[in-house]
Amino acid sequence: xxxxxxxxxxxxxxxxxxxxxxxxxxxxxxxxxxxxxxxxxxxxxxxxxxxxxxxxxxxxxxxxxxxxxxxxxxxxxxxxxxxxxxxxxxxxxxxxxxxxxxxxxxxxxxxxxxxxxxxxxxxxxxxxxxxxxxxxxxxxxxxxxxxxxxxxxxxxxxxxxxxxxxxx
Length: 168
Ligand code: SF4
Ligand code: SF4
Hints:
The protein is an alpha+beta fold and 168 residues long. The protein has two domains: 3-45, no CATH class; 66-159, Alpha-Beta Plaits. It has helices at 3-7, 18-25, 28-40, 84-88, 124-128, 154-159; strands at residues 9-11, 14-16, 66-68, 94-100, 107-115, 134-136, 151-152. A hairpin with a 6-residue loop joins strand 4 and strand 5 (107-115). The mean pLDDT is 90. The site of one iron/sulfur cluster has 13 residues, from helix 5.
């Protein structure tokens, strides 16, 4: 018979070792947990964000709200309606509408929809865009009151979302 076996005690039909029994009697696990809890109560570890009065800084590589960039020189969209972003999207949530300009023989963007509710912000569409027209910005305020509000049209993508301003 081993030493550990000799230490076993039968309690309420169960066998426990003396060490385990003492841990339970003296609430060792409870105090170990409380030690962790109280260590985190130290004021120097407490961090409070005053959002939305103060907007937090997000990581440099954070991918948030999509934006369809326009050319600042002429105010026209940078998008050439090539559809590569829609093809790259694993969720198939981008729909690009275009029509052929008979004079220039070029495709021109007409509509652009982006369903933010299904987006996982992987950035594949952004990477696929050959002209940097589609960009995932650092804006994180994507909440809306309706499901339909999560589907952004071309105007929203170009002008950016307009979240309700916070009043103190
Ligand atoms: S970020 Fe990813 S999931 Fe979202 S639209 Fe782009 S490719 Fe699709
Ligand atoms: S990949 Fe870029 S240029 Fe092509 S349709 Fe998408 S946003 Fe427009």
